[in-house]
C-alpha cells in the first residue's frame, strides 16, 4: 500500500522575495492592531483611575466638611464668603476639652483647604484633581442653623447638607 497523499515534492526553491514582503506586511498590520489595542486599554485604565481619584477626593472632602460643620456651634458670617464661588466658610465650636476654636474651609491652588485656629492650611483633596466650584449656603431658622455645600471637582458635582448640632 502506497500513501500517495503524503508525497512530498523535493523543491529546493526557498521563499521568494514577494512572499517575504507579503509576510512582512501582514506581520506589520497585525502588530499595528495589537499596539493600538494596548494604547486604547492604557487610556481606559487612566480614565478609570482618574474617575476613582475624583470620586474619592470628593467624598472625603465632603464628609470631612460635613462632619466638622455638624460638630460646630455656629457659622461665623463676618469672615465667611457665602452664596458665591469660590466660597469660604468659618465655623466656631468647642472641642472635647471645652476649648473654643474656629475652623476655616476655602480653596486655593485647585484644592480644598482646612485650617483650625489660624494654623497652616491642610489640603482635603488630592493634588491630582482640581476643585472648580465650591459654594456654601447658610440656612437659618429660629431654632437651628445649617449649611448646604455644592462642590465640583474636575466636572463631577457633589452636594451635601448638615445641621449644626450646637445650634438647636
Spans of at least 5 consecutive residues with low confidence:
none
Report the count of strand segments: 8
Distance between the termini: 105 Å
Structural class: alpha+beta
- Within the largest sheet, what's the order of strands? 1-2-3-4-5
Proportion of beta-strand residues: 25-35%
Average residue pLDDT: 88
Task: Walk me through the structure.
The protein has one domain. Helices cover 33% and strands 31% of the residues. It has one helix at residues 17-71; strands spanning 74-75, 89-94, 100-108, 111-116, 122-123, 131-140, 145-153, 156-163. The chain has a 5-stranded antiparallel β-sheet, with helices on one face. A 3-stranded antiparallel β-sheet has the order 6-7-8, with helices on one face. Strand 3 (100-108) and strand 4 (111-116) form a beta hairpin. It is rod-shaped. It starts with 16 loop residues before the first helix and ends in a 5-residue tail after the last strand. The model has no long low-confidence stretch (mean pLDDT 88).
Amino acid at each position: 500500500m502506497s500513501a500517495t497523499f503524503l508525497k512530498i515534492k523535493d523543491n529546493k526553491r526557498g521563499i521568494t522575495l514577494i512572499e517575504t514582503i507579503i509576510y512582512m506586511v501582514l506581520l506589520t498590520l497585525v502588530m499595528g492592531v495589537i499596539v493600538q489595542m494596548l494604547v486604547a486599554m492604557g487610556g481606559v485604565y487612566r480614565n478609570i483611575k482618574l474617575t476613582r481619584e475624583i470620586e474619592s477626593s470628593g467624598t472625603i472632602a465632603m464628609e470631612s466638611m460635613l462632619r466638622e460643620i455638624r460638630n460646630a456651634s455656629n457659622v461665623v458670617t463676618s469672615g465667611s464668603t457665602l452664596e458665591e464661588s469660590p466660597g469660604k466658610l468659618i465655623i466656631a465650636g468647642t472641642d472635647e476639652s471645652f476649648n473654643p476654636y474656629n475652623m476655616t474651609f476655602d480653596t486655593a491652588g485647585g484644592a480644598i483647604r482646612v485650617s483650625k485656629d489660624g494654623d497652616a492650611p491642610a489640603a482635603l483633596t488630592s493634588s491630582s484633581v482640581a476643585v472648580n466650584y465650591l459654594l456654601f449656603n447658610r440656612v437659618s431658622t429660629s431654632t437651628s442653623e445649617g449649611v448646604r455645600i455644592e462642590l465640583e471637582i474636575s466636572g463631577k458635582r457633589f452636594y451635601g447638607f448638615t445641621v449644626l448640632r450646637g445650634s438647636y
